[in-house]
Specification:
single chain, Beta-Lactamase, alpha+beta
Length: 176
Amino acid sequence: MFAEHQTYAARGPESAVRRIETSVVPVGAAAHQQSQNLIAFWEKHRGNGRLLGRANLPCRETAPLLPSIFVLERIDRDGEDWRLRLVGTHLTHWLDFDPTGLSISGFYHPAHVAHNAGVYRMVTEEHRVHVTHGRLYGVDRDFLQLEFVHLPMEGSGPDDILLLGCISIFENRPQL
């Protein structure tokens, strides 16, 4: 159930490590159309007490969303660390690197790992939507105003819960 993973430090020299910092605030609902579309898809494909399944994700209906989504999986029993299982091409483009396969302990600045892991645990354990607005620092894109959506998603079965996420970029929007 828990993924084998390689930490960021194991993938390259320390000078290549980018540490991302998050500055976000929870909001009541998604405001960006892309985020709303992902949530609508998620709600449409759950039922009978089950969540959206991983197998439902790659389809024509989600094709416009796929470049901006990411999937995380728990890599330890307590949910203290998570692995980026999938990162969309739009996200890798504006990050200027592909963090797919990295653990959050290797991707985020150490001061931000526990908080983000706590959000991921909450979403996957409580099976609820979590939406935030804010920015990412450490990727030379801190001027971007972002909306983050976190959703629980079934992996290989109902006991394997992944985190499905989306990052939407606001354009020409006043400060959040």
